[in-house]
Specification:
Blueprint: H1 2-8, E1 12-17, E2 32-37, E3 44-49, E4 55-61, E5 67-74, H2 87-101, H3 110-127, E6 131-137, H4 147-155
Parallel strand pairs: 5-6
Antiparallel strand pairs: 1-2, 3-4, 4-5
Helix pairs in contact: 3-4
């Protein structure tokens, strides 16, 4: 992807993320990517990848000592396996392995884990003084009882829609 982007733009920085699951075919569901291009590349730094491929981010310096972290995210469509190679199944399997490694033996909902982990990441960025822009496919309407609405409320984010 970076090679293709470089044929179109003079300056490119790409960050991609995916789960640690292996697949036996060319298509692997899930994953995220962010492309920074042209003049903004000079102001970008500190790309991050979520351990399960649920989001990526790039930090941009504003020139006055402050930073803006831009996050691109994708939340699973469902909380239970819907097929053996879906993104949700990959995340559930990885969460089960992580839980087992910590001595826990209970099911962790991947959508709840997404909100918990993303909230913690945004909190960490806020603690460093960054402003945060979050965009993505949350596979959920942002109603008062949704996890993404709770995340936005707790972290002081505004829904631009």
């Amino acid at each position: 992807m970076s090679e293709i982007a470089r044929t179109q733009f003079d300056h490119v920085r790409m960050v991609t993320a995916t789960s640690n699951r292996k697949v036996k075919r060319a298509h692997k569901p899930g994953g995220t990517a962010m492309l920074t291009m042209q003049d903004t590349v000079a102001h970008s730094k500190d790309p991050t990848r979520d351990r399960m491929g649920r989001w990526v981010s790039t930090r941009h310096s504003s020139g006055n000592g402050s930073n803006v972290t831009v996050i691109g995210a994708c939340q699973d469509c469902q909380s239970r396996p819907a097929g053996h190679a879906t993104a949700a199944t990959q995340h559930i399997n990885q969460l089960l392995e992580e839980a087992a490694a910590c001595g826990m033996d209970h099911h962790i909902d991947p959508r709840e884990c997404f909100i918990r982990d993303l909230t913690a990441f945004i909190q960490q960025r806020h603690q460093t003084g960054d402003r945060v822009v979050l965009g993505g496919d949350f596979n959920k309407v942002m109603l008062d009882n949704s996890g993404i609405h709770q995340l936005a409320s707790v972290r002081g984010l505004t829904d631009v829609f």
